[in-house]
Here is the input.
Amino acid sequence: MALALQRISRAELKTINARLEAGTPQDTLNWVDETFGSEAAQMSSFGLEDQALYHMYWTINPNARLMTLDTLRLPTETYSLFDQTKLRYGVEVEFFYPDMSAVTDMVKERGNNLFYRGVENRKLCCGIRKVEPLGRALSGLHAWITGLRRDQGMDRGSIDIVEWDEAHGNHKVNPLANWSFEQVRDFVDANEIPYNELHDQGYPSLGCAPCTRAVEPGEDIRAGRWWWESDPNAKECGIHTVAPAKR
Ligand code: SF4
Here is the structure.
């Protein structure tokens, strides 16, 4: 039987974050595993950060849970990486898919590539293919682990390592919050961790195939996401945009 969720108080979170900031991502994952056990899972996009993170998490707990959202519009290379990761770690990836009746209605009314025709359409597609399945995935968890880093910009600059996620009613853990992209890349190389081959073709940030392009040297790392939109601060799909409550 699942245990009732124990919300960590603001005072406790402050102490925990102070300790974890001085430690390593592995310290954070150890804490997650000891505190939440199988009521925690990593929600992965299978980007470079997430691949590094799952390697650490699996090293601590070979049964560490790994979830992902399959929007049904991902690049072929990402589907190949799903298979490589399952083979490498022997993990049963928990896939969450969009509600097909919602996809069918959306495509019927607005077309398959609606997202190129306005932010409203793009947010509708992300809502159906990502945000709703994420809510379903997280509904039974006490904590979810992400690969967010502070220097990815936008709202991410102020994330804590452990936060209360008001939108999902659970704890959100960002073990790589204070890591740089170079640290992630070095860790992946040193441990020969499988990664998406698109990273070697100029894609620092990966998402759905029709909404992601390679970036030029010196461009912002998220410039390739929804590149046709003009607002650089709107480069989020809605799954990380709700500010956590800082209690
Ligand atoms: S990234 Fe593009 S294809 Fe994927 S869910 Fe969002 S709008 Fe739809």
About this structure: The chain has seven helices and six strands. The chain has one domain: 10-234.
